[in-house]
Amino acid sequence: AASNSFHENLGDARALAGLLTTLHSISKPTIARIQGPTFGSGVGLVACCDIAVASYDAQFALNEVKLGGLPGLAAPFILSAIGERFARRYLLSAERFSAAEAYRIGLVHEIVPDEEQLDQALGEIIDALLKNSSFAMAECKTMLQAFSRQPVDAAMIEDATQRVARVRSSPEGREGLVAFLEKRRPNWIG
């Protein structure tokens, strides 16, 4: 990138922006498995995922400004994950922080001692996700993106009402409700 022209850097930046946006908005749940150092755009990848689990030895740094760069592509996702206050500190200081700090500020959802427990924790999360309706999870992700950082007003409530009715009346929504009433596991269609 140091020897690239403006237009070459623009193309690279657009490619990374596309990757981050796709990871953030894909209809399937995404999980980040973090072990060891995660710096720069790697932290952006973690912030784009729906669920993030790290081992105790994980370290993080938003170090672009230390390298004369700008974390602009990951910044929207980082802001969403950890909030403006923590983003200001770590985007401006470029200091390293631990898995415990990443957990405290909301970048990761869980931290575990070692690789074996990391795999176990991820297995439990995956098992939980596999029990859910894929259609409902996709709709939930779309809803979360639409409602994120928006005021709760009449338009949002009406939007939520429409979404609930649409999902409930879908084949998977109907199967889920019938399975619940019949006290059995749903047979997901999707």
Walk me through this protein's architecture.
With 190 residues, the chain is mainly alpha-helical. The protein has helices at residues 6-25, 41-48, 75-93, 99-105, 115-130, 134-147, 154-168, 171-181; strands at residues 31-34, 37-39, 51-55, 59-61, 96-98, 110-112. The strands form two sheets. Strands 1-3-6 form a three-stranded parallel β-sheet. Strands 2-4-5 form a three-stranded mixed β-sheet. The model has no long low-confidence stretch (mean pLDDT 93).
How many β-strand stretches?
Answer: 6
Radius of gyration: 19 Å
Q: What's the arrangement of strands in the largest beta sheet?
A: 1-3-6
Q: Which shape, going by the Cα principal axes? A: globular
Order of helices and strands: HEEHEEHEHEHHHH
The oligomerization state is: single chain
Unreliable residue stretches? none
The profile of the biggest β sheet is: 3 strands, parallel
Strand content: 5-15%
* Class by SSE composition: mainly alpha
Number of helices: 8
Overall mean pLDDT: 93
End-to-end distance, in Å? 43 Å
Q: State the share of residues found in helices, binned by percent.
A: 55-70%
Kindly summarize this structure in a few lines.
The chain is built from 8 helices and 6 strands, in the order αββαββαβαβαααα.
Give a quick set of tags describing it.
190 residues, mainly alpha, three-stranded parallel β-sheet, three-stranded mixed β-sheet, 8 helices, 6 strands, globular
